[in-house]
Write a structure and sequence with these properties.
TetX_monooxygenase; oxidoreductase; five-stranded parallel sheet; 17 strands; D-Amino Acid Oxidase, Chain A, domain 2; alpha/beta; FAD binding; about 375 residues; seven-stranded mixed sheet; 2 domains; FAD/NAD-bd_sf; FAD/NAD(P)-binding domain
């Protein structure tokens, strides 16, 4: 590869691409809007699957580092009815194929595997334009520019690189999550901690659900999903934590207290996370010298696959470039022809509706039957 690869975005996909390229001796520079690796929290738990995310880590030569950050026991899963009845309770026996790690730790091992200076922090992209003959120019918010013969947009849902390839814009899925944390859960929030168990809790109902993970350091991370229009959330003042928490909890009136405590007893202010998605099967015609990975290419509602697919995108693109060092277009064509159907296969929102839950009767049992193969 005679031209260094320019990657926009130091998320998991962009970093995996940079790492695989480094292994193959191909230089790359990653431009990231955040000012440093610790500029913000990197999210919660990720289950890294043996059929995609782990394959990416194998290609990156980081399986030992990955195993060192796995949180044992977190593949356990419980399904509870709204009255607290336990409908499904699966222990983590180590054979699930989806070990859990903290997103921040996964990003750290990827960053640590790259040569110093690979990531240029504090470079927020303002725009990108085509220069012709496969070259593109990226302009940063500070007025700086970089021109490149190979540009990769790994810059997430609101990608500034995507317009070079597609007019698609993410649309609201109709569901938002409200996120909160409970710290020192076993001692300070014992009922909620018992309900969650050792791994993940799911308590589903039509149009609403509570998910919670047991993370490292005795922390419970809660995601409350509500199928409401954005105007409904806009009417809630999330700068008033107590009022916002009370309004969200009101949607779960009558639920078991150990479940509603995951909302009302939060040790952090509730954070609203609207969920967006690109059109299912989003693709584009081949444009010389540029492509996309991860959410920039195939943003979908929560389905447990986003981070895994982003990493696999990065690994597969890196391998394609290494296999065609003198033919960028052949590499990009090979990558995209495999990526498009792969991402479309998983572009499904994994909410209650996916599990056949569309009425108030036996909602959690429907999910239980689906998980256990009885439905």
């Amino acid at each position: 590869m005679h031209t260094p690869v320019t990657i926009i975005g130091a998320g998991l996909g962009g970093l995996t691409l940079a790492r695989v390229l480094h292994i193959h001796g191909i230089p790359a520079t990653v431009y990231e809007a955040e000012s440093s690796p610790s500029a913000r929290m990197q999210g919660g738990m990720l289950d890294i699957h043996d059929y995609n995310g782990q394959l990416a880590l194998q290609a990156a030569g980081l399986m030992d580092e990955f195993h060192a950050i796995v949180l044992e026991g977190r593949q356990a899963m419980r399904v509870l009815d709204r009255d607290g009845t336990v409908l499904f309770d699966k222990a983590d026996d180590g054979t699930g194929g989806r070990p859990e790690v903290q997103r921040g730790e996964l990003r750290r091992i990827l960053l640590d595997s790259l040569p110093a200076g690979t990531v240029r922090w504090g470079h927020k992209v303002a725009s990108a334009r085509t220069l012709g003959e496969g070259r593109h120019e990226v302009t940063f918010a500070d007025g700086g520019t970089v021109a490149t013969s190979l540009l990769v947009g790994a810059d997430g849902a609101w990608s500034r690189i995507r317009p070079l390839l597609s007019t698609a814009i993410p649309e609201y899925t109709g569901t938002s999550c409200v996120e909160t944390y409970l710290f020192d859960a076993d001692t300070r929030h014992p009922a909620a901690a018992k309900a969650v168990g050792g791994g993940m809790l799911i308590a589903p109902a039509p149009g609403r659900e509570i998910f919670a993970h047991r993370e490292s350091g005795d922390t419970l991370h809660t995601y409350v999903g509500l199928a409401k229009p954005q105007d409904w959330f806009a009417a809630i003042d999330f700068t008033d934590a107590a009022a916002a928490t009370a309004r969200i909890a009101q949607e779960f009136d009558g639920w078991a207290p150990e479940l509603t405590a995951l909302i009302t007893d939060g040790d952090t202010a509730p954070v609203l996370r609207p969920l967006y998605a690109l059109p299912t099967g989003h693709r584009w015609d081949r444009v010389p010298g540029v492509t996309l990975t991860g959410d920039a290419a195939h943003l979908a509602g929560p389905n447990g696959e986003g981070a895994n697919l982003a990493m696999l995108d990065g690994a597969e693109l890196g391998k394609a470039l290494a296999a065609h060092p003198d033919d960028i277009e052949a590499a990009l064509t090979e990558y995209e022809q495999a990526m498009f159907p792969r991402s479309a296969e998983f572009a499904t929102f994994e909410g209650a509706e996916v599990h056949g839950i569309d009425s108030d009767d036996d909602t959690a049992r429907a999910l239980f039957n689906t998980i256990t193969g009885k439905g």
